[in-house]
Amino acid sequence: MSRACASRLMLSAFLGGWMVCLVSPACAEVSGPEPFGKTSDGTPVERYTLSNGNGVVAKLMTRGATLTELHVPDKEGNVADVVLGFDSVAGYESEANQYFGCTTGRVANRIAEGKFTLDGEEYTLAINNEPNHLHGGTERSLDKVVWDAKTVKTKFGDGVRFTYVSPDGEEGYPGKLRVTVTYTLSDDNDLRISYTASTDKATPVNLTNHSYFNLAGHGSDTVLDHRLKINADKYTPTDDTLIPTGELAAVEGTPLDFRKMKRIGKQIEQLVDTAALGYDHNFVLNGEAGKLRLAARLKDPKSGRILTVRTTEPGIQFYSGNFLHGQTGKGGKEYPLRSAVCLETQHFPNSVNEPDFPSVILKPGEKYRHVCVYTLKAE
Ligand code: BGC
């Protein structure tokens, strides 16, 4: 039990509120680690469970510091797992996995032609999304390695801190990078993801969580009836390989206008300026980067489940699951085209080659910090 929870219980008792504590035991707890199998090279993978008294349960594994399950009650109290994933490490290692739930990096999203120049030196990265580099590379990107983990107590609730030290040159990136990702669950249903990184050489860093949400439950039909709001007046238009042109364009008058709650399917077929097969766009979030503010709100009208996303990052990639193709996931469920959305808080794609975008370069002595809070409610 967190200190915050403990003090709340004491306060309730002081106020004569023992009954309140007994009937609303909403304090988050952490259990684990438990074994979750092994990678193909024999490395053990472990899993932790965060749960609170409101019925929210999050499961996290050490491969890729990945959110594997997220159970949330609907407006009637029926619980469903609202994120895509697999039942085994082998599933996560298979072709069927499209970064489900993982921590993505060292640089999430695309780098044009896998090239950048830093301090006069040119770096070449893997081309794993022709003709570009995507989500940190092929063999040792942050989603594929096994992280160290320990339980932690924070003022935001109890949780799990994952740590990984990426050696200098791993996946072609300069510098030894020490990364931590801390997941905590509060009694207000905030699943908070807090990232830090430090380096011994200047290097680009752009971390995100790549969960695929379907608020009707994973394996349900498309998310085209979900309603979405994105707190952005602008987005970054791209070329036909999904690399930003450098321009910041207004969403007004385009299918990218999500400034008010809108059905995801309403204008998806009108998207003409993109090579993606649906939404796969970076939005420029309103408000000041570095401050925690609203990024997006997603609602499934049938179940009443609502996901609110807040972040300190300048952008959010909204991806409407356009490359899901009916692969089999947890419990034998199939994941058809557009049956989940990713709402990835991050810096803009290809920032390392765009001097006018907020910088992704981390220097020795500096600390990378990024907070993303997923709040889960139903009404
Ligand atoms: C990208 C998509 C990509 C997907 C891979 C998203 O972050 O924006 O273009 O296909 O990740 O799972």
From TrEMBL:
One Gene Ontology biological process: glucose metabolic process
Protein's cellular compartments: Cytoplasm
Record: active site: 210, 344
GO cellular component annotations of the record: cytoplasm
NCBIfam families: PRK11055.1
Positions annotated to bind beta-D-galactose: 109-110, 210-212, 280
UniProt name for this protein: Aldose 1-epimerase
Enzyme class: isomerase
Reactions that this protein is recorded to catalyse: alpha-D-glucose = beta-D-glucose
Subunit (UniProt): Monomer.
InterPro entries: Ald1_epimerase_CS (IPR018052), Aldose_1-epimerase (IPR015443), Aldose_1/G6P_1-epimerase (IPR008183), Gal_mutarotase_sf_dom (IPR011013), Galactose_mutarotase-like (IPR047215), GH-type_carb-bd (IPR014718)
Primary localisation category: cytoplasm
Gene3D superfamilies cross-referenced by the UniProt entry: 2.70.98.10
Similarity-based family: Belongs to the aldose epimerase family.
Signal peptide: 1-28
Keyword line: Carbohydrate metabolism, Cytoplasm, Isomerase, Phosphoprotein, Signal
Superkingdom of this protein's organism: Bacteria
EC number: 5.1.3.3
Pathway noted in the entry: Carbohydrate metabolism; hexose metabolism
Annotated GO MF terms: aldose 1-epimerase activity; carbohydrate binding
